[in-house]
Amino acid sequence: MNVYSGEFVVRGSMVTIFVLAAGIALAAPPVAAAATELGTGSLAGQVVDDGGNPIAGVRLRLSSVAGTRDATTDAGGGFAFGGLPTGIYSLAESQPAGYADGPESVGSAGGTASANDLITRILVSPRTQATGYVFAEDRGSLAGVVYEDVNDNGVNDDGEPGIADVLLTLSGIDAAGAPVDATVATDPDGRYMFEGVVGGTYSLDESQPMELLDGRDEAGTAGGAVVPPDAVTDIVLGAGADATGYTFGEARPASLSGAVVSDTGPVPGVVVTLTEPDGSTKTAATDEDGEFGFTGLAPGRYTLTETQPSGYADGPEFGGSAGGDTTRNDVISGIILTSGLLATGYQFTEVPR
After folding, report:
1. What pLDDT shows up at residue 14?
2. Rounded distance between C-alpha atoms, residue 277 and residue 288, angstroms
3. Are residues 48 and 115 in the same domain?
4. How many domains in the chain?
5. By residue range, what is the domain housing residue 230?
6. In a shared domain, residues 84 and 134
7. Distance between CA 100 and CA 114 in Å, rounded?
8. pLDDT tens digits, 195-207
9. Which residue, 315, 259, 320, 262, is CA-closest to 287?
């Protein structure tokens, strides 16, 4: 075999060059490998929520006949694959926890958004710097109303007014383990909404409006446990869910008044007992004009009971403006007070002995 030393000009990609000097042969790397390194491309994009905010920690997989590569989004929601040989690629996203799937946007090297979280037929050529591959994800919301529950039935009925400027706080942990603590205020109609909420487990707390009495609260479409006086806990909000119906009923204080009288005039110093909807009682004594009154009352069903005054025989009882049952001596029962009602005219009459 004849061996020559010197310089050679090589064309093509399948030739191995031997540099011969002093009878020593050294093998150089294949030209194909060098060409691959010099002719690679890249692909980049971002994962964002429906408000354009970046989502970190999302895994992306880029696949071709040559194999697969994985990347994870950074704090800015960005991802990138470099050193890509020429080929046709598919880009798949692992759906992030707590988000519902949103639209995919094809970037500068083309492709087809062929399924949820998947872009296929992306052509990467030598020196391609493909950008703009975006996966958008949808967040959810939680909404409700704070209102005056006039009839105390726990339902926001037609005509019952909303209460403005009440603060609501949503707190908990989202599906990615991040803490959530947000506060909103009700609008002029008493309505509120927490927007852009990632799926997770939450508690909802209402700041009790001043000068109003606490009423009935109800959990909405994502469930939860009503915890008096003003909270709903263990709300499990699904990915991208729009939960509604979280209501907080409030009441304006009501009052109830009347008098104890006889044929000869008012009867002072008579004890009148009020039994409240929860069974608790409070008392009042008639003043010099024989009048009594109770204020700061929540909506519900009440009973008035008179302690029969000495020196008098029992006379008839008369229900007042909120009605009542007078079939028993010294008792007026079944008095229905609604929010803010001023019930008057309850009368116990006595006959001097």
Report:
1. 36
2. 29
3. yes
4. 4
5. 143-250
6. yes
7. 17
8. 999 999 999 999 9
9. 259
Supply the CATH number for residue 263's domain.
Answer: 2.60.40.10
How, if at all, do strands 342-352 and 312-318 pair? antiparallel
Q: How far is CA 208 from the centre of its chain?
A: 19
Whole-number Å distance between alpha carbons of 74 and 80: 10
Q: Which of 222, 250, 278 is the last residue of a domain?
A: 250
CB count within 10 Å of CB 107 equals 19
Whether residues 109 and 28 share a domain: the answer is: no
Gap between the Cα atoms of 230 and 226, Å rounded: 8
| pLDDT at residue 8 in the model | 34
**Residue 36 backbone phi and psi in degrees, to 5:** -65, -45
- Full-prediction pTM beyond 0.85? no
CA quadruple 109, 114, 115, 119: dihedral, nearest 10: -10
The pLDDT tens digits for 102-155 are 999 999 999 999 999 999 999 999 989 999 999 999 999 999 999 999 999 999
Same domain, 150 and 235: yes
Do 161 and 197 lie in one domain? The reply is: yes
Same domain flag for 66 and 106: yes
Residues 290 and 326 in one domain: yes
Are both 210 and 155 inside the same structural domain? Answer: yes
Question: pLDDT (tens digit, 9 = 90+) per residue, 232-271?
Answer: 999 999 999 999 999 999 999 999 999 999 999 999 999 9
Q: Which two tokens stand for residue 54?
A: 């970046």
CA 245 → CA 152, 200, 201, 227, distances in Å? 17, 18, 17, 16
CB contact at 8 A, 201 and 172: yes
